[in-house]
From TrEMBL:
This is Hydrolase or metal-binding protein. The keyword Hydrolase applies. It comes from Pseudoxanthomonas kaohsiungensis. Pfam families: Gp3-like. One of its GO terms (molecular function) is hydrolase activity. Keywords: Hydrolase.
Amino acid sequence: MLKGFAITPPVVGRISIGRVVERNGMRLPEKDDQFTLTSQVQNRDGWLLHPLDEALRQQAGGKLRSLPVRLLFNDPSLNLRADFNLFDRTTGRPLCVGNGESCRRLGQEGIEALPCPGPEGCRFAEGQCKPYARFNVRIGEEDETGTFVLRTTSFNTIRTLAARLHYFEAVSGGLLACLPLELKLRGKSTTQSHRAPIFYVDLSVRSGMALEQAITDARRLDGERKQAGFDQAALDEAARQGFANGAFEELEEDVPAVVEEFFPDEQGTAAKPNVAAPKGLSGRLQEKIAIASTD
């Protein structure tokens, strides 16, 4: 296996609750009140819709506010990976990824393992680091290991999904990958949102199903898989090793779109990343490293 980049679950599409729009010559992230399933191909107008988007939308009779899903792994941390992330908005490259205890940081001599004080206490990030999560789910039955990925920087979404995953793992006896589940879009208002509704993603058992029935179905499916020779524990371990194979999860070719949608600059305008690393990157890194060394 090639070293240096993470081996992540195969992605066949994206789940979004927003998009990037062009307004007054600037590209800005814009939130939505429904899910959209897209392919991994985009043109000037944005990401192309995945065929499942239309099929599910017809079943829902309009807006997609819920999605039937299954998970690929029994381990919650393999399905949902959440970190504190700092990206270089000019190049679109990751600079530092941490969990509040330790981090992997791009330094002068390559990737360094360092303590992570979190966004509020990190002088290296200067307030530009924030939570960022990737949640992989299966939609449909055509591809047993292909997933749709939901990327988010919403603390409400990250906290809710993490709690649900651990709860469902516990009550099902570790059969998370066999449970019939559903992603739901929920709204709430806060003082920070000035009482306007904000939307976050939740995870529940399928509509019309009690938790006990979902667990019964999970046990049945688990039994069928074991009889067929399906080794869920080996799949989880393979994924665990794959994630550990690289310092950063995002591929370099994907990061510019991630930065544009989830890490816009302070003025709210989206950066237009340059794939080539400019000379200024080295200077900025040296300056940040010098500041961090004085802590």
